[in-house]
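Supplementary notes for students who missed Thursday's class. We covered one full example, reproduced here. Read the sequence, then the structure, then the short commentary at the end.
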Amino acid sequence: MAWNTRVTELLQIQYPIIQGGLAYLAYAELAAAVSNAGGLGQITAMSLDSSDALRDEIRRARLLTDKPFGVNFAIGMHGAGYEERVEAAIEEAVPVISITGGNPEPILNMLNKTDIASLVLVASRRQAQKAEQLGADAVIVVGQEGGGHLGRDDVGTMVLVPQVVDAVKIPVIASGGIGDGRGWMAALALGAEGIEMGTRFIATRDCIHASDSYKQALMDSSESDTAVIKRSIGTPGRVLRSEYVDRILELERTNSGYEGLRHFISGEANKRWIYEGRKNEGFGWAGQVTGMIHDIPSVSELFDRMIREAGEIRTRWGG
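Structure (token representation):
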């Protein structure tokens, strides 16, 4: 059964399923597993120490897969300093670059004279139109159900995706609240031509950097066991609820500002749980789709399941 869309054609992949950037987790092993299964895996550039480290990770991924994969640049909280990494990715001739947060224009300008496909994460119709105007090849539209950093407006995927589909001519990829074949088909019904998943890929055996504690928490949590932090400083992101997260929320209620939150929301705090399992000393990103996660399959097993689910739905729809 063919699953061709403009997204599969643009990215040269079999299924229009993309793995999110996943700070501190999306490295060669996971990216290659997703690409080998027929989707698009990605490496997280800004979680690496340098452009040389990124080159090494790209080359490691190429040893693990001969399929296309991408490099994600989460520039929103990193400010300057990503240009050298982008140049490294261009020199390594990666097939796809995605941009999360911040102003995508400088990176899109760097990609102008290359054959690299560009994806821009957006959280509003206006952002999608701007990305198209700047030359993005496709947009990834994230609804408020998603894990990690979100838009400032609490608009869900079901409402946001069709609005963006109607507003732009480039392909739209849906993200937020998607974790199985049903979500994939729902996205297609809304007019999207592909999906991005983050949280669901953390809860796989191929996400080797995530601690067992983190994965177990994803299985044990319901859709109501998440919270949005950093809203008070204008960069909201969805995490698993915990006593540690409650402390962050309390600091936000007392208007602590960035300086008061900095220690609690740092990358080091994130890694204390996702790497070391120290739940009471850190936090882990997660979307509301955690309520649909009940096992830890391999990426290949997850793809097989999703393709079967989506195929059954398509058969019921009549082709």
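Commentary. The longest strand covers residues 69-74. The chain has a mean pLDDT of 96. If anything here is unclear, bring it to office hours.
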